[in-house]
Amino acid sequence: MYQAVRGTTDILPEEQACWRYVEQHAVAICNLYGYQRIDSPAFEETDLFTRSVGQGTDIVEKEMYTFTDKGSKQITLRPEGTASICRAYLQHGLNNLPQPVKLYYLTSIFRYERPQAGRLREHHQFGCEAIGDDDPALDAEVIDMAWRFFQSLNLRNLSLQLNSIGCRQCRPRYLIALKEYYAEYEQKICRDCRVRLNRNPLRLLDCKQPSCQSTADSAPQSVDHLCPACRTHFHRLKAYLELLKIPFTLNHRLVRGFDYYTRTVFEIQPAVGGSQSALLGGGRYDDLIEELGGKPTPGIGFAAGIERIILNLKKQKIPIPAPPGLQVLIAYTGNEARDASVKLAAGLRQAGISAAAATGGKSLKAQMRQANSLGVRYALIIGDEEVKAGTATVRNMADARQQIVPLGDLPGLLKRPA
After folding, report:
1. Are 109 and 81 in contact (CB under 8 A)?
2. Per-residue pLDDT reduced to its tens digit, 161-186
3. How far is the C-alpha of 143 from the C-alpha of 101, rounded, in Å?
4. Within a domain: 392
5. CB 127 within 8 A of CB 80
6. In this structure, what CATH number is given to the domain that contains residue 377?
7. Radius of gyration over alpha carbons of the chain, in Å?
8. Is the CB of residue 263 less than 8 Å from the CB of residue 252?
9. Domain count, the chain
10. Which member of 30, 176, 261, 366 lies 3.0 to 4.6 Å from 362 by CB, making a disulfide possible if both were Cys?
């Protein structure tokens, strides 16, 4: 028997209410802040991601789904959302619009990594990007939108982690200090960190191995090596967050996983699990558009993992509104009534009432059991006599009360509030 490929899953009907709850709140918060939806292809040319995410990152080296297509092009399934949005920004001349351009997406992400709770090989993200402005007030707006999003979901006990990793003017000096510090511990850190020390030293701070934790905790801090412009930018961002009454924790080990990040980086984490269970992460990427062939164009954004959000909704037992279900099931007795039930169901749908006619030749008793199991508000019962009289028996499934109603009066009755 075929099964879903490891690291993927089916989102069954009983799970859909949670997904719609998260997605509807995401769309609502984006509309509130003036962000417009964009959808990008599921795959791109591989070079887009190697240039943007970075050659020394785990995603590029270990996790990308890359293949050669029939035109001999190297193609990669989207491992993150920002690079595709920046490519679309350049390709479609969005730089000619009033800046910043504010976009959001709901999309699938593909990474070949060990499947775990809330992070599968195909998982889903809600993301936002604001491109074309480096004002720290925009950083504060993006963080505010992320924070209000989680508030709208009624999630509690979350923390905002914040850091600045500088720019290409001041970061080289910080990386020198970081490498000098880690050189003393080269034999004590894990194998991956020994590689990072030479190839991507900023990632040393993000190592999850217990043996590397104390070393990273005592490492030089990026905020102590910021240039005047970055220091001012970070100071103003913190002032804006305080003005907006958004609590934050300075975290000098927060660096994020992609090479394109500059200055502001942030995560929103649950109380239990910390960075390994982060619900949302983001930051500024002021050099990325230029790296992809455009003019220097600043940007900032975030991405939130929908599966992890749903896990936390369940952990916190947040009540999820049930989606609208089937309102009416039409049960019948007799061949003439069977044909009439199909026509009646179609007429009710045209009137905006969700309805279905029973199928399969079941007995009336079995049809009523079906109505009960479907949770419909009403069962309509018609037989050949009702067809001749132009009526139907309406049963209220909540209290089993019945009444005979002319077919023309059904829409008005069925639309009444409970």
Report:
1. yes
2. 999 999 999 999 999 999 999 888 88
3. 16
4. yes
5. no
6. 3.40.50.800
7. 28
8. no
9. 2
10. 366
Q: Which of 417, 334, 416, 331 is nearest to 381 (CA)?
A: 331
- Max Cα-Cα span within the chain: 94
> What is 23-92 written as a DSSP string?
HHHHHHHHHHHT-EE----SEEEHHHHHHHT-TTSHIIIII--EEE-TTS-EEEE-S-SHHHHHHHHHHT
| Residue 145 sits in the same domain as residue 262 | yes
Rounded to two decimals, the pTM is 0.89
**CA 379 remoteness from chain centre:** 38
In terms of domains, do 282 and 332 share one?
A: no
Tell me the pLDDT tens digit for each residue of 140-152: 999 999 999 999 9
Last-in-domain residue among 315, 341, 360? 315
Cβ proximity of 76 and 51 under 8 Å: no
- 282 and 404 share a domain? no
Confidence of residue 116 (pLDDT cuts 50, 70, 90): confident
Is residue 401 included in any domain, yes or no?
A: yes
The identity of residue 234, as a single letter, is F
- Return left, alpha or beta for 139; rule: phi > 0 is left, psi -120 to 50 is alpha, else beta: alpha
Which one of 271, 294, 315 terminates a domain?
A: 315
The DSSP output letter for 42 is: S
In percent, how much of the chain has pLDDT > 70? 98
Range of the domain at 360: 328-413
**Across the chain, what does the average pLDDT equal?**
92
Q: What is the mean pLDDT of residues 65-69?
A: 92
Cα-based distances in Å from 320 to 142, 301, 326, 417: 26, 28, 18, 21
